[in-house]
Amino acid sequence: MRNVRLIIISTIFFIVAIIDSQAQHKVQQKIPEKTRILFLLDGSGSMLENWGRPHQTKMSMAKIILSQIIDSLKQNKNLELALRVYGHRSPREQNNCKDTQLEAPFKANNHQLIIDKINDIKPKGVTPITYSLEQAALDFPANPGYRNIVILITDGIESCGGDICATSRALQAKGIFLRPYIIGLGLRAEENLNCAGKFINADTPGKFHDILNDAIEKSFSKTTVSVELLDAQNQPRESNVNIMFINTTTNMTMYDFIHYRDAQGNPDTVQIDPVVDYDLIVSTIPQTVVRSVSIKTGSHNVIRIPVPQGNLRIEQEGRKNDALESIVRQKGEPGIIMVQKGNAAIRYLIGKYEVETLTFPRRKFQVEVQSNKTQVITLPPPGVVNVNTVSPGYGSLYEMKSDGSWEWVTHLNDLKSQFTLNLLPGTYKIVFRVKNTTGSKYSAYKIFQLKSGETKLVKVFG
C-alpha cells in the first residue's frame, strides 16, 4: 500500500512538472524564423531619367543593383521573395491608376524568375503607389509563421490621389506586413513618404545599393533588449511589472511580458523585431511611458527606465476588511489611477496622491509615497446604526463637520421603514418625511452620535 501511495505521489509531481513546463513554453514570445520580402518596384515613365552615370537611367541602374542583391539571397532558406511592379503596362497618357501587377508571387527558389521579370520591365506610366500597396496586401499568403516585409523602390510620389500614409498604417495595423522600407531614387520627399514607412533617399546608384542591402540585412539582424527598471538610487532593482512594446505606427502591442530579474539581479534579454519602431509602457501605477525608444539594430540594447516606487496600504483599525475600497488619484489630477482593496500593500511611483475611501461617509487623505517605504492609512472601525422610520419615505443622512456644518452623506432607502447603515464614528443627522404625508412640514430629523464598534437603534419619530 505504501508503494502504491509513493507511485501516486510521484505521478502527480511528474504531471505537475509537465504542466509547468508546458506553461513556460506557451508564454514565450518569439520572432518567426521565416521572412517574406515583397519588392514593390516603380516602373513609371520617370524611371527613364538619367541617373548617376552617362547613358544610364534610374531603371537600368535599379535593374542591375536589384538583380545582384536578389541573386545574393539564394542561400537564405528562411527567406521567400516576390515582385510587384506598377506604372509599367500603360502609357502615361492613359493615366491608368490601376496599373500594377504581381509579376512573381512568393515561392521558394524563384530568384531567377524575379530577375528575369525585372529585366523585362519597360517604364511607361504613372505612379499609383497607394493602389499598388493595397493590392500588395493580397500578395502575402495567409499561412502563419512568417514576417511580412515590403521594400518600396520609387523615384516619385503618389500621382493618383491616394493616401499612402493612411493605407500603410491600416495594413500594418491588420498585421498584413511590418513597417515598409521606402527607398527614394534621387527623391527628396520625406514629408510625403516617411509617414508610410521608413523613408531613405538614395542620391546615387552606389547609395541605392548600400541602402537596399542594409535594409535587407537589418530585416534579419538579431536585435535584443534588456530593460532595467531603476529605483530612487538609479539602481536596476525594480521588477515584477508588466512591460509592453508598442508599435509606434499602429499602436498595437508587439511584445508583452512581466519583467524578471535573476538571482544576480540581471534582467531578461528579449529578442525584438528590428523593423519596427517602439514605444514602451511599463505598468507601474501610474503607467510609465517611454516614446520612440532608441534601438540599435543588430545589437544588444539596454533600456534604462526610472520607476522608483513605494507602498501604500489602507486598513481599518483592529479588523481585516477586505471589502474596503479606496479611490486613488495623483495629486491635482481628476483621473482615477487605482481602486485599492483594504489591507493590500500596493506599489506606486513615488510622489503625492489623494486617497478617497469608499466608506460611509467617505474620507479623503493626502499621502506621499516614498521610495521603498510603506505609507499606511488607518481608519477607525465603523459602528452599526439600525434605522426605524415607522413607514417608508424620503430622507437623507448628514454628518456634522468640525466647524459645525452639515455635509450630505447619502439618501436613505425609500422602500423600507427599517434598514441598517455601517458608519464611521461621528455625529450624524437624519432628515426624513413619510411618503403618504401631505406636506414638507411633516419632515422630522434626528441627531445621534456613533462610536467605533457600537450598535445603535435610531427611531426617527421616537
TrEMBL record:
Pfam families cross-referenced by the UniProt entry: VWA_2
Listed InterPro entries: VWF_A (IPR002035), vWFA_dom_sf (IPR036465)
Domain VWFA, first and last residues per copy: 36-186
Protein name (Swiss-Prot/TrEMBL): von willebrand factor type a
